[in-house]
């Protein structure tokens, strides 16, 4: 078994596995080259292009897992939301959810048909990864993070509209979160059928919530998804940022691996999460922008803290930044692989 899949299952590894959130992206010249020929969404919806960039970081740096090139937002199109990506500004939804009644009029989603491009990209990528034995990760956004885009109409700093909406319309919120959860289960189940060997659930913006609000408004739906995926028998990675205040609640929602950002001490998180779950993260991605000696020092500190723990996957705590030098990524992969286990 690959070191990545073994670590997800807390089994022994021959090297600490390493991959990066947003490892296929603008910091790579090879990515920018493909991207110059397509818009971002065209690239996501073109299986050959998506497969190509999925493989780029595997071929360039020898990372221990590939993550399919896609985005968390296209499933919202399946519900009738009009999604665009504005160059330099990120995602925009032309018809955001503003009234509680809108929930009843969402399109009946058909993920198998509407998201066929990602399943095809997975099939292509799996075929090309198979000979090198590199596992392929599928993913989806978690309901709160998806709802925040659907309600805000795009990115937002404080998620104030979303939080006000959920408290003002608790019944419509429960219905919307259930719709998103069931769509996510169908989408991820189909990703495994198309070749995904592990799944990551991105609840990227969950750290905007208090522990109490997380428990009340979010945890039931993440639990619903992770429970429903359990029979697929692939490792489930449950990721969020800003989760230090409610790590235990995140863990209770499920997942075989918990993804951590850098705002929590790795050893403290490890104690709080307990031994029955693997950990992925938690390097600050801005460390890759600075001197190698500092990056190496922090990587060694993390390896000292968690390297001997059954179930550790080296990763950044959130996506690599577009200004990341490629040679820093290469050196870090080499360094982590050289660590004695
Ligand atoms: O990690 C990977 O390499 C796989 C690909 C991947 C992308 N998006 C590609 C992408 C993954 C796993 C995502 C998930 C995603 N998308 C999340 C959750 C993860 C996270 O970062 O918290 C979120 C919130 C989104 C929504 C999204 N997509 C935003 C807010 C943006 C704009 C911000 C930005 O970096 O430009 C995107 C665009 C996006 N998704 C890019 C990439 C490579 C950049 C697009 C470009 O080439 O212009």
Ligand names: coproporphyrinogen III
Biggest sheet architecture: 7 strands, parallel
Number of domains: 1
Compressed to H and E, one letter per element, the order equals HHHHEHEEHHEHHHEHEHEHEHEH
Describe this structure in words.
The protein has 341 residues and is an alpha/beta fold. The protein has a single domain, classed as TIM Barrel (Alpha-Beta Barrel), CATH 3.20.20.210. Helix content is 47%, strand content 12%. The protein has 15 helices and nine strands. It has a seven-stranded parallel beta sheet. A two-stranded antiparallel sheet has the order 2-3. Helix 14 links the parallel strand 8 and strand 9. It starts with a helix and ends with a helix. It binds coproporphyrinogen III (CP3). The site of coproporphyrinogen III has 20 residues, from strand 3.
Brief account:
This protein is α/β, with parallel strands linked by helices and 341 residues long.
Walk me through the topology.
Elements: H1 3-8, H2 29-35, H3 40-44, H4 47-61, E1 66-67, H5 74-77, E2 83-86, E3 90-93, H6 111-114, H7 116-129, E4 136-141, H8 143-152, H9 160-168, H10 170-193, E5 198-203, H11 211-229, E6 236-240, H12 247-253, E7 257-259, H13 266-273, E8 278-283, H14 292-306, E9 312-316, H15 326-338
Parallel strand pairs: 1-4, 4-5, 5-6, 6-7, 7-8, 8-9
Antiparallel strand pairs: 2-3
Helix pairs in contact: 4-7, 8-9, 8-10, 9-10, 10-11, 11-12, 14-15
